[in-house]
Design brief:
The complex is a heterodimer of chains A (375) and B (239). Chain A is of the alpha/beta class and 375 residues long. Helix content of chain A is 35%, strand content 29%. In chain A, the strands form 4 sheets. A 6-stranded mixed β-sheet of chain A has the order 6-7-8-3-9-10, sandwiched between helices. Chain A has a 4-stranded antiparallel β-sheet with strand order 2-1-4-5. The longest helix of chain A has 14 residues. Chain B is an all-alpha fold. Chain B contains 12 helices and no strands. Chain B is globular and about 55 Å long. Chain B starts with a helix and ends with a helix. The chains are: A alpha/beta (375), B mainly alpha (239). At the A-B interface, helix 2 and helix 3 of A face helix 1 and helix 5 of B.
């Protein structure tokens, strides 16, 4: 349905999109994932013919977007990052204008009614767009893209700025649309992509960094498993940390241990990675029982899309992340439950990029030596 | 093209630009009509028409300032440029919307003619000739304004630059007036500028000469600037 071959875009000297190729089959929902400035919007603008490519081709249903733009564009419904709404028109007048602009041949009244029902904007049809909330505007933008039932829908961050309810609504709408249309959807919100898309393309620095389902991508990157432990040592000191980390490292099947920051007074967290074949939980429990340490927490954390995303976008792409496994310490930002003074439990997101540099050097260097030493 | 034309006509009225434009146009032309025709006790409308040049020059930037600049600023151009329409359709849709409003404003001269009809005998031929000339003058100026509107995202910048450009077009022939008797080089400049002059071509009509070359000149200018506008939109896509 959509075919992109060696698409490249230069802005002056700056390479925005570099040699991207992919194919989207009919009825597929493709997720475009990437950090801000990765070239998602640029790619989408090229797909829809808003800007031209420096080189490469975009074929929509076999038609080159630059050679026969009118025919190719007739097959596309596009919702840009900022919906192209004329804010001084009413919703009805605007949709009617888009209907004329797209030279739609479907019966006007019935079609506009269908589209409005689908996007749930029936009750605001008479209102001026200027006075609508962000969520409604987004939905009007969506309705605009759906006019003339284009076989291809390209949605650039369709849920940005919506409240959680609206996000869920839009997601289910996109899923519904995916049955009849080919959908390309961009986002930097990971759960959204995971929930909606059949296939994911991760773009980083203008290049395709990964392509496949979330599981496939995860498999390509690693076959290991991770867990987070919180262990109380006898002395409540930094010395504990070293001893415990070394001891865990000695367990067979453990590939890598990293002592994390102090979560409670004198008590540390440990990130443990296994080879994926052995279940080390019992061994760790036994070890701690023998030594008289207390396990306060054990949390399994398999690779989420978030991990994959960070790994790909923070490192230098898939190959490096796949081969250099010690680079795995770049774990996801953890959500930690913390009890505040008032007794309220709050979720705190901690970004451990900084302390990583300090802790990493201390512990991770000897990980290979100890691995399997006590088999 | 029709969709864009209709939307643009609607936008003129919902945004209030049309009311400002029509009110000022009719007010000032009314003053010219009273001073130049009624108060001086004549039914000759030519002096009114020659003053009309200034109204056209000052008011056309108001009409064209937001046509393309606002689209770019609000990113609504993404909707237009990704719809299955050509660039010429977009530009001409907007162009003809502005031209229509201009013709509506200008047609007020028929009301003046109607008033004159009670005061004396209206000389219809020069009046119609001037009316047509004014349409084509406006057609050329609107194309210039639309072109400048395509260059910027800022409405005010668009309006001011359009005004300055139209003013320079108006002044150009006076600036080179002294070159007429100069050397070969100065003469050449004089020749070129006076051939490209808008004002003296327009004033010619008010003296009772219906000059077909001037009409062709105005149409060519309109076409040329619309062509430039299309190229600007195209270039933005390719840059």
């Amino acid at each position: 349905m959509i075919e992109v071959r060696n698409l490249t875009k230069m802005y002056g000297d700056k390479l925005a999109v570099n040699n991207i190729s992919f194919k989207v089959e009919k009825g597929e929902i493709l997720g475009f994932l990437g950090p801000n400035g990765a070239g998602k919007s640029t790619t989408m603008n090229m797909l829809t013919g808003y800007i031209s490519s420096t080189s490469g081709e975009v074929l929509i249903d076999g038609t080159d977007i630059l050679e026969d733009p009118k025919k190719a564009k007739a097959n596309i419904g596009y919702l840009p990052e900022i919906p192209p709404l004329y804010v001084d028109m009413t919703v009805d007048a605007y949709l009617s204008f888009m209907y004329d602009l797209k030279k739609c041949k479907l019966p006007r009244k019935a079609h506009l009614k269908d589209v409005c029902n689908l996007c749930k904007i029936q009750d605001v049809r008479g209102r001026i767009i200027k006075n609508l909330s962000k969520g409604y505007r987004q939905r009007v933008g969506m309705a605009q893209a759906l006019i003339n039932n284009p076989p291809v829908l390209i949605l650039d961050e369709p849920t940005v700025g919506l409240d959680p309810n609206q996000i869920i609504e839009i997601r289910s709408l996109i899923k519904k649309l995916g049955k009849r249309h080919t959908v390309i959807l961009s986002s930097h919100i990971l759960p959204e992509i995971q929930a909606v898309c059949d296939r994911i393309i991760i773009i980083n620095k203008g290049e395709v960094a990964a392509d496949g389902t979330a599981d496939e991508i995860a498999k390509n990157i690693t076959n290991e498993h991770k867990m987070t432990l919180r262990i109380e040592g006898p002395e409540h000191s930094a010395e504990d940390k070293r001893v415990i980390a070394d001891a865990i490292r000695g367990i067979s099947g453990v590939k890598y241990v990293r002592a994390d920051m102090e979560r409670e007074k004198g008590i540390y967290d440990y990130d443990v990675e296994t080879d994926g074949k052995t279940d080390v939980r019992r061994a760790i429990n036994k070890l701690c029982a023998e030594k008289g340490w207390n396990i306060l927490m054990l949390q399994l954390s398999d690779l989420t899309l978030e991990d994959i995303f960070l790994k790909i976008t923070m490192g230098d792409g898939l190959e490096k992340a796949g081969s250099e496994k010690s680079g795995k310490s770049k774990s996801k930002p953890r959500i930690d439950l913390k009890t505040s003074e008032g007794g309220k439990i709050s979720a705190v997101q901690e970004d451990d990029d900084e302390e990583e540099e300090n802790d990493d050097t201390v512990v991770s260097d000897s990980s290979e030596d100890n691995n399997g030493g006590e088999e | 093209m029709l969709a864009i034309y209709r939307r643009e006509m609607g936008a003129f009225f919902t945004s209030g630009v049309a009311y400002v434009f029509l009110a000022v146009f009719w007010l000032v032309s009314g003053i010219f009509f009273y001073n130049g025709v009624v108060a001086s006790g004549t039914t000759d409308t030519s002096s009114m028409f020659s003053s009309m040049f200034y109204i056209v020059m000052f008011l056309i930037p108001v009409l064209t300032m937001k046509l393309l600049s606002e689209e770019k600023k609000n990113r609504t151009d993404q909707g237009l440029l990704t719809a299955p329409v050509g660039l010429w359709e977009i530009v001409l849709g907007k162009y003809f919307a502005a031209l229509t409003l201009y013709i509506i404003a200008e047609s007020v001269v028929f009301i003046y003619a109607f008033i004159l009809n009670y005061l004396g005998d209206v000389v219809w031929t020069p009046l119609l000739g001037n009316y047509v000339a004014m349409i084509f003058l406006g057609a050329a100026f609107i194309a210039v304004g639309l072109f400048i509107s395509s260059l910027t995202e800022n409405q005010m910048a668009s309006a001011v630059v359009s005004l300055v450009v139209l003013f320079v077009i108006y002044l150009s022939e006076m600036l080179v007036a002294s070159f007429e008797n100069g050397g070969r080089f100065k003469k050449a400049i004089y020749f070129v500028v006076s051939k490209l002059a808008f004002y003296s071509r327009y004033v010619e009509f008010t003296r009772g000469v219906f000059s077909l070359p001037s009409i062709v000149f105005f149409i060519s200018a309109a076409f040329l600037f619309n062509f430039f506008t299309v190229k600007v939109l195209e270039k933005r896509r390719w840059s």
